# Entry
Amino acid sequence: MRRGAAWSSWLSPAVVLLLVVAFALTQGSFYRLQLGTLAGIYAIAVIGLTLLFGGAGQISLGHAGILGTSAFITANLTVSHGWTPLTAMVPAVAGATLMGLLLGWSALRTTGHYLALVTLAFGLMFSEFGRTVFSAGWYGVPPLTLGPLDLGDSQRMFVAVWAVVVASLVAVLLLVKSRFGRSLAALRDDPVAAAASGIDLARTKIAVFAIASALGGVSGWLFAMYQGSVTETSFSFMLSFNLLIMAVIGGLGSPLGAIVGSVFLVVVPEFGREYEDFRLLGYGVALLLVLGLLPGGIASVGRVLADLVLRRSGSATPAVSGK
Amino acid sequence: MTATGALEGRGLARRFGGVTAVSGVDVRIVPGRVTLVLGPNGAGKSTLVNCLTGVDQPSEGNVFLDGKDLTGKTSNRFAQLGVARTFQHARPFRGLTLAENVMVGAHGRTRAGFVRGTLRTPFARREEAELRQTASLLLAEVGLEGREAGSPNDLTLEEERRLELARCLAGNPHILLLDEPAAGLGEDEATALATLVRNLCVDHGLGVLLIEHHLELALSLSDSVLVLDFGKPIFEGTPTEARLDPAVRTAYIGAEGDQ
# Structure
């Protein structure tokens, strides 16, 4: 049985990896690769959010501020101080993680709606900060190079980003099934009983915010290089909101759902480009449909369909066999 | 790291606004002995347990473990030092399996952090395997044999209570506070539970504080009795003395005897 559990935690990353390689090999179009890369960049942040929301029952409505912190640091160091993108990663991710520690610290004093408001305020503060202090933005962020490997090429960048997505997915799946993952679930299900079982709630909350923010930091760092420029408008509240929708639509608490939700929310609106005005309305309707019909998110669609078929074939057996 | 001494409350009081739930209570839970706390509903028994385990902070008085002052420490600290407790209304972790619930109980005495857990280092694997085995043994001990992969949502209230007991024991505590463990149990089940508590106490040297309404059972199980009424101690002594004490009889036992 334990072997089976180990199997299933490797299965979804393997499937994602296969799809990604197939996509990279068959879809030569720059436009599609760019979209796929963007979806992957968001997916990394959303995987962190599913750990925060679904794994530990915490919330962050200001995650754009985390991605933004990392992207600002990356852009500033590479454009204004001549750092290479790779070395800029260290302070960028560290900065985002530090912001996460601060948010986690505020989660010690607030829970539920109040925590949502605190993180929302953080996100708004960040975008105001960007608007006033860094209104000029940064242009000409160099593409990522890993030694001899130049990721300026869109196909290589796509593969590199998705390699990080798969690595994050594997890490989070393993983490959830570890002692630390259990302590997150205990915190989510019953904080009082969790503490009485020896779990340090403060440390656990701060740690999960830090981990989610580190993933957000990686996402923001990749975003800076993907975009080639960083401006204050890139990390508005709308991005926090989108990341939240990605996590919910994919299936809250499911790291695989995070990937599904990110791809869904990046790709689907592209089909409706000419109906730009109706995009928000479309979001709203899609969100309501998912919440109403698939509370487990798009990632649960297979299970829901299987249940439906089983139930139908169970109750309607005579009709079917009568044909 | 784990202490072995007594858990002691001195001069404990807890007020909620103008209401005094507990006042002037001295209690000592000694390894190898069962201390019974009696009292009618609202006498402050659960509040006392909360104050003794860091779940709630006393308004007055101090809590000592092995002579060390732990007043003001949070409940995870108490758990890490070997003080475990159950809740009057069981509080299982509903998103985890039964085995995982028990494994969480060992959190304070296990070490693998998120880095080692995610990387599955040999240390983390070993700890995890040992923990799974312990969880199976404990589930069997409380009568939930072979249900490791089950969900707490499929348990009866009484089974939830037994799961919680297994979770407590996973932490290898030396002090155990049981808040009405036999509530809702039939006569046979309550006797089985009593045997288990007695075994833990005698064989494993645990100090137990017991809140229980199965009066005869609880008295036969305990070494000393503390009776609370409106938060104040009205009697302290042996079970035999408690049976004879007129104040206790009128406040508590008498009412029970009338039924």
Q: What stands out?
A: The CA atoms of residues 94 and 152 of chain B lie 6 Å apart.
